[in-house]
Amino acid sequence: MAVVVPRSFRLLAELEKGQKGEGAEGCTWGLERADDITLTTWTCTIFGPPGTAYENRIYNLTIICGEQYPDRPPTVRFNTQINISPVDRHGAVNGLSTLQNWNRNYTMETILENLRREMVSPQNRRLPQPPEGTTY
């Protein structure tokens, strides 16, 4: 029988990995407020991959890990405007397969890695982008 890690332990492990910079290439994450004892609201960054329309850009996101995380996916939203297929016109990430087919073993890092992968995918890599620094 598998051991189910409680939400707070899981999020503390994710926080530690994010703070140590041991995460996915081109991605960072951490708590939005250091005093958030519920470990709910996270601020994340994706650095645009080279050779794409996102190159030399920094994208800021907010991830909300509700009470059911990691059994249910978090809410993910870009704060920096981006033109990419899994993101709607308000910045909400709705079309990412990682969120649609959520698995308790996925993490915030998994989400950020998959979003960065979307940036280099053939359907997204050359999409025209909003002016740099534009927010929702």
Describe the structure.
Residues 6-136 form the UBC core domain. Keywords: Ubl conjugation pathway. It holds the Pfam family UQ_con. This is UBC core domain-containing protein. InterPro entries: Ub_conjugating_enzyme, UBC, UBQ-conjugating_enzyme/RWD. By secondary structure, this protein is of the alpha+beta class. Strands 1-2-3-4 form a four-stranded antiparallel β-sheet. It contains three helices and four strands; from the N terminus they run H-E-E-E-E-H-H. It starts with 6 loop residues before the first helix and ends in a 16-residue tail after the last helix. The chain has a single domain, classed as Ubiquitin Conjugating Enzyme (Roll), CATH 3.10.110. The longest helix has 13 residues, at 7-19. The mean pLDDT is 95. 22% of the residues lie in helices and 17% in strands. It has helices at residues 7-19, 97-100, 108-120, and strands at residues 27-31, 41-47, 58-64, 75-78.
CATH superfamily: Ubiquitin Conjugating Enzyme
Q: What's the level 1 CATH class? A: Alpha Beta
The largest beta-sheet arranges its strands as 1-2-3-4
Low-confidence stretches: none
Protein name: UBC core domain-containing protein
Domain UBC core: 6-136
Keywords: Ubl conjugation pathway
InterPro entries: Ub_conjugating_enzyme, UBC, UBQ-conjugating_enzyme/RWD
Structure summarized in a few sentences:
By secondary structure, the chain is α+β, with helices and mostly antiparallel strands. 22% of the residues lie in helices and 17% in strands.
